[in-house]
Specification:
The chain is of the alpha+beta class. It contains two helices and three strands. The longest helix has 10 residues.
Length: 87
């Protein structure tokens, strides 16, 4: 659990992601860090992962459930799970 540094860690992992078959990342949407979920998903797709994003439940993560109420100061999180076939 690296609280907002998910993109930086995956970027730093770079080519070593080829050694990973499955992963789970708790992505944090912190407004002070800017929106980086798309960047994370692109890096994982480029590394050959097929991903799913899950926002948990209303009690745990209300911003990720309808009716969506993500405002500029809203902090939220989601689980990103990925799998890739070995090459």
């Amino acid at each position: 659990n690296i609280e907002g540094a998910e993109v930086d860690v995956i970027r730093q992992a770079g080519p070593t992601l080829r050694n990973v078959r499955q992963l789970a990342i708790e992505y944090h949407g912190f407004p002070e860090l800017g929106e980086r979920l798309g960047e994370l998903l692109t890096m994982l797709a480029d590394a050959g992962f097929r991903c799913v994003v899950h926002s948990f439940d209303h009690a745990t993560n209300p911003a990720g459930q309808p009716p969506f109420r993500i405002r500029p100061a809203t902090r939220w999180f989601a689980l990103v799970a990925g799998t890739r076939e070995p090459q």
